[in-house]
Structures are given as C-alpha cells and as structure tokens.
Amino acid sequence: MRTVRTSTGHRLPLLLLLLTVAALVLPPAVAAPHPGSPSAPRASGAPARAATARYVPPIRHVFVVNIENKGYDETWGPDSAAPYLARTLRRRGVLMNNYYGTAHNSQPNYVAQVSGQGPNPQMQGDCQVFSTFVQTGTVAPGQAQGTGCVFPKGVASLPVQLTRHDLTWRGYMEDMARPCQHPAPDTRDRTQQASATSQYAARHDPFVYFSSIVDRPTYCKRHVVPLSRLTHDLAKARHTRNLTYVTPDLCHDGHDATCADGGPGGLKGVNAWMKRWIPRILASPAFRRNGLLVITADESDGPQSDASACCGEGASANSPAPGIAGPGGGRIGALAISPFVHPHTWSTTPYNHYSLLASIEEVFGLRKLGYARADGLDRFGLDVYNSGWNE
Which region is the signal sequence (predicted)? Predict the structure, then answer.
C-alpha cells in the first residue's frame, strides 16, 4: 500500500488520507425523513407538490371530526348540551364563528370536505340508494355533471391526492362492522337507520362514494376502518396518518336524539364521545408535535331551519339550491386546536367545507379540487394560525 509523509513526518496510508479529507469536505449524512415529512423525497413518478403559502405553519398531521345536524347556537352557545365541547375544548382553540355547511342534507357536506364536489338531488336526499353516478360532462371548477352518488374513477378526491403524493390517510368510522363497509352498488342503503347492534351510517363516510377507493378493495380496507383502530394509530407518530378523518356513529355524532341502543343521543351523546376520544388525539405524539384538529358539524339542523351560505356559494353544477331551501348548509361554526393556534380566540372570517378542503390541501402542498378553488374562497390564514409561530 502506498504511503504519504505528513507535515509532522508521520507516514499514513494513502487510502486513509483520502477518506479523512472526504470526511472533512462532504456534508454529514442525515437520517432519511418519514414519508409524510416536508423534506421526504418523492417516490418515483409521484407528482411534485405545490409551494406552501407563507401563512401556513409546518403542520404534518390533520385531524377532522364531524358532528351531525347542529346549528351554531345550539352547539357553541351558552346553553349548549355539550359543555366539554363548547367550553372546555373551546378554550383550547380558535372558534370560527362564521363557518358554514355547504348543502342539505348530510351526505353532500362530507363529500364536499374531501373532494370539492357540489350536491345533486340524490345526494341532497342522503343517497337512499347507493347509486352509481352517471356522468354527462364536466364544468368548472372541476365539477362532474350528472346524477347518482358513487363518483366514477375520474373524479378526483383528497384521499387519492394524498396517496399519489406519498402522504397517508385513514377514515375511522365508529360502529363499522368491517373495513370498507358499504352497500352493494345500486341497492338500498340499509345503514340509513340505526339499530341496537349497528349505528354506522354510510352516508357519513365520504370515502365510500368514490369508485377510485371502493373499486380497489385492498386499498379501501386498508384506509377506511373501524374507529377502534385509532387507539393504535395514535400511540406513535409514525403510525399516525397525515390525515385522520373521524366519524362518530349515529348516536355519538348527535344525529339521533335517542340512541338505538338506549344510550343518550343529541349533544349529550356528542359530549360523552368527545370526552372519551378527543383527549387521546390531543395527547398523541403526532398532534403535539405538528398537528391540527378541526371539529365541526356537517350542516345546521335542517334546510327549513337554516339554509344560508357564505363565501359566494350559490347554485352548483347539479343543483340550483345546494341547501334545498337556500344556497347552503347553514351556519355551524368550527373549532381549530393546534400548537400553532392561540387558545380561546376567535376568527370571524367566513369559511365553509370547501374552505376546509382548500386549507388541508394548502397544508400538504396539493392542488385545490372542485369548489375548493372557487374564486374568492378564503382558506385558513393567520386568523386561525394565530399563535405567533411565524414571528
């Protein structure tokens, strides 16, 4: 082996000298980032992500929880029957008091949150039949024209966006009997009514209304799962999905005033459920590190109670009145809790479910889908991300 003489007169093997110089010149190796982290390399063929807006903090885990059919005053007012939600949790976050549903009845609001698609009459009727959507065209902004409930594969959705960008997601459905549970195509939906043994409602599970998900059984079963899986997935940050979407059952989301199993319904049922599950989310490593929790309702009490809208919403591609008796799903409010949110604050900016979708897409650097890219639609800004994290 060749040697070289150093300035001190010592002889070193040439190979050892070259390795020493390389160690001084080259940057240190770093651990590979988690697939959901901002610096993670894209898998071969994965689309490039959009640049994140400067007002968006480095959130990497979003949690969404919906309750059912509750107007703003009923949920958040001083006489709320859910004091844990309306007072205890409310003190921990920013309350968006001009947040609106986008339609009546329930089903199209969930679909709006994960796709930006507007309602049609079948969806406004809560998809009593799990009917195939028959598409007749596409109009701006990215709206599938047609009738039916289960959208064809070509209709984009947030879950598929996340997967294509090497990000992770899961829908957690309470009382779901088996992963990816849904009615057979073009048959009556038997989950419309709760029973003493099952209170799962397919119409509150937006993921099963996309052929791009349900026509891939293995993919669907891995991503749309019973709520019981959430405990394991929250235990460690590496198990927690970038998007965690939680739907309580017909008792615990407040839909049924009296639960089919005899338990308390309405906001009392909501309160009990929140006290059990929300502390687990807030204590999870993923949330504490860089999480955002949004709690809202799908719609107000009903179209005759409040079908108002915000954000310029009017007739959609398939419905002249998304709220049946008006342009929207009514004023419902939304609470955001995060390390990037200052506790016990307010935002008066008008938002709706399309704003929520657009905000999630901004967090993860995704292009905006459907009505999430409507002109003039506000996304969560420093009125929500108001902790001073950017100072």
Answer: 1-31
